[in-house]
Amino acid sequence: MEDFLIYLRLGFDHITDPRGYDHVLFVVALCAVYTVGQWRQVLILVTAFTIGHSITLALATLQLIHYKTALIELLIPITILITAVSNFFFQEPKSRGIPRPTTNRSWRYGLALAFGLIHGMGFSNYLRSLLGREAEIVKPLLAFNIGLEIGQLVIVSLVLGLSFIVINILKSTRLRWTLVVSGIVAGMALSLIIMK
Question: What are the residues whose beta carbons fall under 8 Å from the beta carbon of 111, sequence distance 6 or more?
Fold first, then answer.
């Protein structure tokens, strides 16, 4: 049980570590178009991302798939940039006046799942270095993944909480919130790509 908690904490610390902020940026970009009232949609979106990164994290840690680390390190900020830029074109149905049909968001879930596959390979480098030659890796892998998920949910809560303050208390528009947050994330992702 002690080992499980150690890997759980390592997973949590890995995704919330300010020095490795690329994964934090991705989660922020995913959430930027949503409000607190849409927490269920955000949960589905983050779960899609989790499923994606869980698959490749397991496969790469078990060394069932191989890839070039430099390529993954480049692809991660590209996924962040694409997600942030897609937010500029995201439209919610209008609630006033004549109801419009709900915007089809399934492509966002597919995107989160696909990009999760790439991020999982990035996580696996860190986890493999922690595991070393340890024979039993299923429990540490599970614990690390749960820690990552808890960390993601903390980030989501902070982003949605901040959006509530900005939109509902400071009376900014939702569009301005989305554009500012997505613009900052896109700029940071672009600088990560250039540095690669």
Answer: 82, 83, 86
Residue 168 CA: distances (Å) to CA of 14, 34, 171, 172: 32, 13, 5, 7
For the chain, give every domain's residue range: 2-91+103-195
193/172 Cα distance (integer angstroms)? 31
pTM for the structure as a whole: 0.89
Q: What residues have CB less than 8 Å from 51, skipping those under 6 apart?
A: 113, 116
Confidence of residue 84 (pLDDT cuts 50, 70, 90): very high
Amino acid at 27: V
- Sign, CA dihedral 99-112-52-185, equals negative
